[in-house]
């Protein structure tokens, strides 16, 4: 298929659009064991949260408490019995890593503030509509599901939809473009009817005046 027969007339493959790295390989099931492992581990975590009634904070606290207790007792018993201490690497964040993280966070915050300013001052109507619809959608989704279920469902979609699209992209693009063209034709007809009605209404209003 040529680029004109693809959605949005794209010329790059799905793998290239997703970055072409490890993340793209995982999303497109080119690292099948890793992708399947992520889904299984995430599903197991979701089941644990749902069945046990744990929250993320309580489960994290329990896991860290167990981890610290084991390491502490291991280190103390090793000192008494002249055994090697727990094989932990030196835990340290370099100044370079902190600066890079701070720069990344600052850039994202500045983008958010710029968008907020454009919307608040009425500069970007399209962005306002996009943000309003996104927030409305998030509100509706949040009212019918919890955060963990939403997170797992989102991960499941991310790890399945791109792979399915890549596998059947010829058929999906063909039917999508046909549907898009039909919707364009329908919109043109509706728009023409509405314009005619508005024009007639204006003419009638002028006659009455």
Q: Can you walk through the features of this model?
A:
The chain has 209 residues and is mainly alpha-helical. Helices cover 78% and strands 0% of the residues. The chain is built from 9 helices and no strands. Helix 3 runs antiparallel to helix 7. It is elongated, with a radius of gyration of 27 Å.
Helix content bin:
over 70%
Distance between the termini: 58 Å
Number of helices: 9
> How many strand segments?
0
Low-pLDDT stretches are: none
Average pLDDT level: 83
Order of helices and strands: HHHHHHHHH
Secondary structure layout plus pairing:
Elements: H1 14-17, H2 22-27, H3 32-52, H4 56-81, H5 95-120, H6 125-144, H7 147-158, H8 161-167, H9 169-208
Helix pairs in contact: 3-7
In short:
With 209 residues, the chain is mainly alpha-helical. Helix content is 78%, strand content 0%. It is found in: Endoplasmic reticulum membrane.
From the structure above, extract its key features:
209 residues, mainly alpha, membrane, transmembrane, Reticulon-like, transmembrane helix, 9 helices
